Amino acid sequence: MKMQLAAAGLLCLLLANGTHAAAARSPGSRAISGLYDRHGASANAARVNALRQRTVQHDFSDESSEDKRIRRQRAEAIKSGFLYAWSGYKQYAYGADELDVVNKRPRTTRNGWGATLVDALDTLWILGLEDEFHEARNMVAKIDFHNDGGQLAKVFETNIRYVGGLLAAHELSGDRMFLQKAVELTDLLMPAFNTPLGLPWQMLNITTGVGSSESPGGSSTNLAEIGTFQMEFFRLSQLTRNATYHEAAQNVITTMLARNPLQAPGGNYTIPGMYPTDFDMLAGKFTSSAAYWGGGGDSFYEYLAKTWYLSDFMLHRNLDLWNESIQSLAKYGVATSTSGLLFPGFLDGSKFYPYADTFTNFIPGTLALASKLVGSDSYFSLAEDLLEAGYSVFGEMPTSLGAEAIRFVRKNVPTDYQLLSSTAQAQVDKYGFVLSRPYYMLRPELIESLFYMYRLTGKTIYADRAWAIWQGIQRNCRIANGYVGTADVSVDASDTGIHNIVDSTESFFYAETFLYLYLIFADQDTISLDDWVFTTEAHPLSRANAFDGTF
């Protein structure tokens, strides 16, 4: 780590830099108490005003004409790749959730409502594909969300892919049909919150309104799946003037904190802001002490920072919780590898495990954005360090693609290496880490963080790294009619002449991977970070909606 991070210093900085002129309260609007005026109304208004005047995106006025030419050429190449994938989807699975690329047939994985179609709406719009967007719009208008396709709805995924996609399409195009469909679907999801504590079930029978856990007969869930509704539900409450959605999302955090006091006797919550991932939604209790910013925890932390940003800097509780979590992540949740790189890891109580999945690659981008907003150089430095480590997992591979998960060896912890098998030790010697799960599934998280770093700093190294990843996708994941995962990132298809594939093309490939790649190379005022906030599924929500703490 480049410098020690002073928790008290950052907190003082946050309180000094804060808040925007309050919009007039609409007749009949509803104030949400207890979450906003943490530090006094007049002082708070000054802080919010100061934050609302702040810009974070690099102005790119120093870009050379040659750099601009190359960048735009690359944007067109990404767009061409998207159209190639989209044409395969249209030909063999249009309106379906996913395309089985190898077998050229549709897959129903998200209730048959057209997950790829809805998830990709904003990508179609931003890439300027007007005909494709309007054709998709007409398909979306016909979706019957009451027909669940014979599947239980996964509530978390339905929210981030469908509700988020519909909201972004509405905000970009101004078409109220998308908003109406978002409300229709969210209202069908709300019975998942009709539980003793208001915590949502993982799964929901849309027809009966009966919820359940993915574990049959149980009530287990995870931190990400209960805590990734804040952005979509906040914006939905804003647009409908109905506080119900926002209250449901915020109640999750209120209840989680109230029923899991820090260091309570017999409790699993022991480190401030490092919330265990395993959760019982009926009891409202953490069921293990394992805390992780990767799969199972990732988007909970992401939404703490981004909902604060989306709320016009008024949702102060989210900022307080984010600040506390980042302090503990920096102190307890990262470690330097024998290669000198700073990786996030897995905490179980006080024990650190040097393991990181690809989902942790969201951290540098979100942390960099938040650091720019509050003016923290030390936390931006932490984001840079984490991005270097995350990129090394891609950059060390001949494919330029990163493994789904790696294990690293900590500096000055020789047992990390000694306990590995000889095969794993050989990988550490060669790459600096072990390929715990060696496949790449077209995931966007590292590309996302490269996008943020490029837009925030203007440094072309981040764009060049994204281009290298795109070329790796082209070599190893492009097959007839679309793109698929690759089974082993340590073997490049151009060396073997064989595509060692994983036949999976989820909707996030269109919604996130393609979108972030394109935005890195598009003109920089396209979805500026000063004007838009991205959900965890890369759906941009506008900052043009002023907020005064009421709905």
Automatic annotation (TrEMBL):
CC per GO annotation: endoplasmic reticulum; membrane
Catalytic activity, EC: 3.2.1.-
Catalysed reactions, semicolon-separated: N(4)-(alpha-D-Man-(1->2)-alpha-D-Man-(1->2)-alpha-D-Man-(1->3)-[alpha-D-Man-(1->3)-[alpha-D-Man-(1->2)-alpha-D-Man-(1->6)]-alpha-D-Man-(1->6)]-beta-D-Man-(1->4)-beta-D-GlcNAc-(1->4)-beta-D-GlcNAc)-L-asparaginyl-[protein] (N-glucan mannose isomer 8A1,2,3B1,3) + 3 H2O = N(4)-(alpha-D-Man-(1->3)-[alpha-D-Man-(1->3)-[alpha-D-Man-(1->6)]-alpha-D-Man-(1->6)]-beta-D-Man-(1->4)-beta-D-GlcNAc-(1->4)-beta-D-GlcNAc)-L-asparaginyl-[protein] (N-glucan mannose isomer 5A1,2) + 3 beta-D-mannose; N(4)-(alpha-D-Man-(1->2)-alpha-D-Man-(1->2)-alpha-D-Man-(1->3)-[alpha-D-Man-(1->2)-alpha-D-Man-(1->3)-[alpha-D-Man-(1->2)-alpha-D-Man-(1->6)]-alpha-D-Man-(1->6)]-beta-D-Man-(1->4)-beta-D-GlcNAc-(1->4)-beta-D-GlcNAc)-L-asparaginyl-[protein] (N-glucan mannose isomer 9A1,2,3B1,2,3) + 4 H2O = N(4)-(alpha-D-Man-(1->3)-[alpha-D-Man-(1->3)-[alpha-D-Man-(1->6)]-alpha-D-Man-(1->6)]-beta-D-Man-(1->4)-beta-D-GlcNAc-(1->4)-beta-D-GlcNAc)-L-asparaginyl-[protein] (N-glucan mannose isomer 5A1,2) + 4 beta-D-mannose
Pathway: Protein modification; protein glycosylation
UniProt keyword Transcription regulation present: no
Enzymatic class: hydrolase
Cofactor annotation: Ca(2+)
Top-level lineage group: Eukaryota
Pfam family, one: Glyco_hydro_47
Alphabetical list of SUPFAM superfamilies matching this protein: Seven-hairpin glycosidases
Sequence positions that bind Ca(2+): 536
InterPro entries in UniProt: 6hp_glycosidase-like_sf, Glyco_hydro_47, Glycosyl_Hydrolase_47, Seven-hairpin_glycosidases
Molecular function terms from GO: calcium ion binding; mannosyl-oligosaccharide 1,2-alpha-mannosidase activity
GO biological process: carbohydrate metabolic process; ERAD pathway
Catalytic residues (UniProt): 157 (proton donor), 298, 404 (proton donor), 445
Keywords assigned by UniProt, alphabetized: Calcium, Disulfide bond, Glycosidase, Hydrolase, Metal-binding, Signal
Tagged with keyword Calcium: yes
Protein name: alpha-1,2-Mannosidase
Family note: Belongs to the glycosyl hydrolase 47 family.
Signal sequence coordinates: 1-21
